[in-house]
Predict the 3D structure of the following.
Amino acid sequence: MSNDEQQVQKDIVQTFGDALQMQTSAALFRERLAEYINALIVSDFEKLVNLLYRLDVSEKKLRTLLTSAANAGVLIADLIVERQLQKLQSRRQFNKPAEDIAEAEKW
């Protein structure tokens, strides 16, 4: 498993709390995440909506994907992982080391 996959798992587990645990593979983690999401759909939909909001998952994209007849838990899990990967790439892009900045431009 790559470092990115481990970091994504860590970020998602941190957001979801004790409900999820890190897994040895990305596929297994996705499966466990989908199972938990399906359980939330049935038992605590409001909590799921709050988690999706905290994770900044696109509501428009979610609504579009959920119109298909596929497993909602899997679709939502994929969107969550995709969004976390986007955040990770964004952090890398905008957190460049200070040595790349000219001395005159440093505070």
User: Anything to note?
Assistant: Residues 72-94 form the longest helix (23 residues). The radius of gyration is 17 Å.
